[in-house]
Structures are given as C-alpha cells and as structure tokens.
Amino acid sequence: MTDQDDQKTAPMSATDGVIDAVRELITMMSKGGINELDLSTGDVTIRLRGGAGAAAVPVAMAVPVQDSSVPMNVVVDESKLITAPMIGTYYSAPAPGEPPFVQIGDQVETGQVIGIIEAMKIMNEITADHAGFISEILVENAQPVEYGSPLLRVVEADALG
Fold first, then answer.
1. In the chain, what percentage of residues exceed pLDDT 70?
2. Closest CA to 58 of 41, 75, 83, 82
3. What is d(CA 55, CA 61) in angstroms, rounded to the nearest whole number?
4. Residues 34 and 105 grouped into a single domain
5. Residue 95 burial (CB count, 10 A)
6. Is residue 107's pLDDT more than 80?
7. What is the pTM of this model?
8. pLDDT category, 139, cuts 50, 70, 90?
9. Rounded to whole angstroms, how far apart are CA atoms 51 and 34?
10. Domain count across the chain
11. Domain with 98 in it: what CATH number?
12. DSSP one-letter string for the chain
C-alpha cells in the first residue's frame, strides 16, 4: 500500500474537523452579512473578521429570554471597527518621532487617514470608513497585521446621544 492509499482510507482527524467547522462558520458569516465572530469553547478560541463590504453588526446583541422574571441587562456597543485592508506592518504616525494620525477621543471623518500599512516596502495610507470618535486603538505602532485585523474602534457621533 502506498502513502497515498493510506491517506484515502485514513479517518478524518480532529484538525480536519476544526478546519471544516471554520469553513462552515465563514460560509454562514458571508450569507448572514456578519463581519466579525468570536467563538471560545474550552481552550480553543476562534476569531473571524470579514473584509470590506460586509455588513456591520453590533458587538453585543440582546437575546430574547423566555422567562420574563429573569432580569436582563444588555449593553449594546454602538461602535464600528476599522479593519486592515491588507497584510503588512501598521504605523500610527507618518514618520518616526512624529505625532500619531489619531488618538483616543479624536473625531474622524470618512476618508481621513488614520494610519499607514507598509506592504512590500510601499506605504499605504489607511483611511476611516466611518465618521465618529476614536474610542479604542487596537494595534500598536509597528505591529504586523493581517487582512481584516481590527485597527481602531469608532463610535458614531449620533450614538453618543
């Protein structure tokens, strides 16, 4: 019997099952318009982030409770993520020693430069795709990022009340 024959008859490994489950989650995300998903079970954590064009969803959502005697306190996060449109190294400032493009609390407009991602020695300006106020910076200066990595969290002005 050859190695190839062994591979055809070998049972599916746990890793294959996880990969199939992740593929199914990605398919469900794209069909449902979901652009981010965090799933933790036991000692396994899966974080999936969609790209541009996916529908934005709240970070926390209320789930209906059948028993009305159970009090529900649900916090809905009205913020939106700005994610990396490419793989590379994120830079928060235009050059070393210069102030960052944005800081927590800064107001940004759609299209405003919020950082740079260096990919293949080319500096690519990253712009805000949402207007609002920077509520959280999720990456460090000079940190490598993947496509879809969360960079900043923006709270829209009308969500502040």
1. 52
2. 75
3. 15
4. no
5. 8
6. yes
7. 0.52
8. very high
9. 10
10. 2
11. 2.40.50.100
12. --HHHHHHHSPPPHHHHHHHHHHHHHHHHHHHT--EEEEEETTEEEEEE--TTSPP--SS-----S-TTS--------EEEEE-SSSEEEESSSSTTSPPS--TT-EE-TT-EEEEEEETTEEEEEE-SS-EEEEEE-S-TTEEE-TT-EEEEEE-GGGG-
- Ranking 55-59, 67-71, 102-106, 109-113 by mean pLDDT, the lowest is 55-59
Q: 126-152 burial by CB neighbour count: b if 16+ within 10 A, else e?
A: bbbbbbbbbbebebeeeeebeebbbbb
Where in the sequence is the domain holding 152, given as residue range(s)?
78-161
φ, ψ of residue 18 to 5 degrees: the values are -65, -45
Q: What is the rounded CA–CA span in Å between residue 11 and residue 67?
A: 44
What is the average per-residue pLDDT within 128-148? 92
- Same domain (yes/no): 70, 97: no
Q: Which amino acid is at 4?
A: Q
How far CA 141 is from CA of 12, 80, 88, 130, 152, in Å, comes to: 42, 21, 12, 21, 12
Burial of 72 from C-beta contacts in 10 A (0-12 / 13-18 / 19+): exposed
Do both 94 and 31 map to the same domain? no
